[in-house]
Amino acid sequence: MNFGDTIKKEILSKIIKENHCKKAFIAGIIRGTGALYEKDGELGLEFSVADEMTAMFITNVFRTLFRYEVREMSVSEDRLNKKDKFTLNISGERTIEILIELEILIERKGDIELNLDMYGQMTKRDCCLRAFIRGLFVAVGGCTIPQKKDTTTGYHLELVFSHYTPALKTSEKLAEHNVLTKITKRRDSYIVYIKSAEEIKDFIAFLPAPVAVLKLTDFMINRELKNRSNRQKNCDIANVNKQVEASARQLEAIEKISSTIGLETLKDDLRRTAVARKENPDLTLGELAEELKISKSCLNHRLRKLIVIAEEL
């Protein structure tokens, strides 16, 4: 089940009040999916998002923060996910100014350079760091949880990066806030991922996305209850199978004794037990013990004795 969409919808449904958090959020999105280019001697920025809701959210933030209208937006098909992809383009004379304010670019000794420090001054505030990670998740994040009838697929949350350093820095930054992740390489990408349901909850709570946390908790509880019920059913079935197998062995032994030396040759207690089992093949050990008015332990001992006698014949 694609739980990532649930998290992203909650993130985008929240109003970001403070301008510094809005900047951090947009910076997170751009850091995740942005690409700089140069055309006709001017610098531009292109970045893609997964849906129209995200695209409109970003254009509104650019309008309120920078008084910049994102006019260039195209829609294409994401062949990998078989969904529409919305590509936004920031260009013109204000591009450098905006990217410096978002700390994507940095001015150093009169030169404009790419700022390689993802977690600089902009993420010093705790609220801005969370906004930045929310932006990253919207841009390059995903989360799946097991389908209702699926017993093989587990929990998985990931952030996908094109280079190792930002993946490492993000993993380290999350660890500082007790959100534990691992890193792996998938083709040309570096994946910061979580496989534990509880640690995925920690990540979502860090964002924060409390409604998604509650939904995931509810899903986990219901799944655990269902798993317990299935385990109990499996245990009951296994016990029934054992009882059937044991009863078959007992009846086979009694039949062998009857056809060779005869049940009348047995001691009275064993004879009565053999006759009772033969006449009541479907009774459980407890029910048969009650029928003979003896304990289960005593009945079990007698039945084992009948099997030993049959084996010796």
Secondary structure blueprint with pairings:
Layout: H1 4-13, H2 19-33, E1 34-39, E2 42-49, H3 52-66, E3 72-78, E4 83-90, H4 95-101, E5 105-108, E6 111-114, H5 126-140, E7 141-144, E8 156-161, H6 164-175, E9 182-186, E10 189-194, H7 197-206, H8 210-260, H9 268-279, H10 285-292, H11 296-312
Antiparallel strand pairs: 1-2, 2-4, 3-4, 5-6, 7-8, 8-10, 9-10
Helix pairs in contact: 2-5, 7-8, 8-9, 8-11, 9-11, 10-11
CATH architecture of the largest domain: Roll
Radius of gyration: 34 Å
Helical content stands at 40-55%
Distance between the termini: 61 Å
In the CATH hierarchy, what is the superfamily of the largest domain? Answer: Homing endonucleases
Task: Write down the secondary-structure element order.
Answer: HHEEHEEHEEHEEHEEHHHHH
Q: Label the overall shape.
A: rod-shaped
Count of domains: 2
Overall description:
With 313 residues, the chain is of the alpha+beta class. The protein folds into two domains: 4-208, Endonuclease I-creI, CATH 3.10.28; 227-312, no CATH class. The protein is 55% helix and 19% strand. It has helices at residues 4-13, 19-33, 52-66, 95-101, 126-140, 164-175, 197-206, 210-260, 268-279, 285-292, 296-312; strands spanning 34-39, 42-49, 72-78, 83-90, 105-108, 111-114, 141-144, 156-161, 182-186, 189-194. The chain has a four-stranded antiparallel beta sheet. It has a four-stranded antiparallel beta sheet with strand order 7-8-10-9. The protein has a two-stranded antiparallel ribbon with strand order 5-6. Strand 9 (182-186) and strand 10 form a beta hairpin. Helix 2 packs parallel to helix 5 (126-140) and helix 8 crosses helix 11. The chain is rod-shaped. The two termini are 61 Å apart.
